[in-house]
Amino acid sequence: MKLGFIIPNHPNEKRVALLPWHINNFENEIFIEKGFGHHLCISDKEYEDKGCTILNREDIFKECDGIFSLKVIKPSDYPYIRENQIIVGWTHPYGSGNTFMEEVAVPKNLMVVDLDNIHPEIFYENREIPIPWIPKNFVYKNSYIAGYSSTMHALMSFGMIPSFKHKVAVLGSGNTSQGAFNAISKFSCDIRMFYRKTLNEFLDQMSDFDIIINGIELPPHSEPLLKISDYAKLKQNTLIIDAAACPGRTFEGFHHTSYNHPIYHKESVNFYAINNSPSIYYREASQEISAAFSKYVYSKNLKDFIELCK
After folding, report:
1. Residue 244 in domain
2. Cα–Cα distance between 89 and 70 in angstroms, integer?
3. Is 310 part of any domain?
4. For a 10 Å CB count at each end of the chain, is N or C smaller?
5. Where in this chain does the record put each Alanine dehydrogenase/pyridine nucleotide transhydrogenase N-terminal domain (predicted)?
């Protein structure tokens, strides 16, 4: 079968999800959009030398059974999508990809392979089907980079070099929180980590902290960790870095920020939540994504995903 790779058209997205040196014994024919490796100075010829076919974007959709897009496919591509195609990537069916699911995936009977790091699943005909050969945390380093890059970028955007006089809370103990801890620990500040089991202690002490870094992603419809009424209890001008990019759910009333405007001020709080922060360190992130996805996703025949849905 034919698997095509398109360049994600998400703002400031520079990660390259397939690198030529990871292409080895793939069971599908691979088609690459012209200029796919541009951000890493990888030429189209390097992909051709590995047996790939280079096409323009529209022809990728026309030619291929499956389409890989690292980020959620945007409305500008909706007209190109054919009925019954397979869409592979970080599709976020219950989050940022909900509109895509409702407007395109369901009406066109698409098979959507969502490569969530914890629960990779196929969304097809109102079913959610686990993918047994993809292990939990198969691309954990991208989440680690998210924590690291969010912390560094937020501090730079805020114009702040933390020191011994600053108290920092890191929420969570998973991959994102570990990356955030690595970043903030490079400064000589007073750091404390709070796990899910000790979040009540954080809530009792939240007024002590100058910087709060979140690595916890809450599921939809969860009670927020901090409600609007809690913000008055924080220090004036507290910097909240939502490295999990879960605003609104973890922090009530806040929304995603952007590379052009990474921080905004509200309720006496400075808030950062960029949802593709690993792209800041896009060279490192590309290497990790390409290696993990090649091993567990790209090397598999698309027919294997179809078989799971029968």
Report:
1. yes
2. 5
3. no
4. C
5. 4-105
Distance between CA 285 and CA 12 in Å, rounded? Answer: 14
Q: Do 47 and 149 share a structural domain? A: no
Q: How far apart are CA 177 and CA 125, in angstroms?
A: 35
Which amino acid is residue 140, in one-letter code? Y
Could you tell me how many residues make up the chain?
A: 310
Q: What pLDDT, on a 0 to 100 scale, did the predictor assign at position 219?
A: 81
Helical H segments across the chain, by residue range: 44-48, 57-63, 98-100, 140-158, 175-184, 199-205, 282-293, 302-308
Residue 36 token pair: 């796919």
124 DSSP β-pair partners: 127
Chain centroid to Cα 223, Å, comes to 22
Q: Which residues contact 14 (CB under 8 A, 6 or more apart)?
A: 39, 279, 282
Whether residue 304 contacts residue 125, with contact meaning beta carbons closer than 8 Å, is answered with no
Q: Structurally, how many domains does the chain consist of? A: 2
pLDDT value of residue 188: 87
* pTM exceeding 0.70: yes
What letter would DSSP give residue 4? E
In a domain, 309, yes or no: no
Concatenate the DSSP letters of all residues of 243-282 into one string.
TT--BTTTBTT-----SSS-EEEETTEEEE--TTGGGGGH
Residue 267 has a pLDDT of 85
User: Please, what is the angle between helix 140-158 and helix 175-184, to 10°?
Assistant: 40
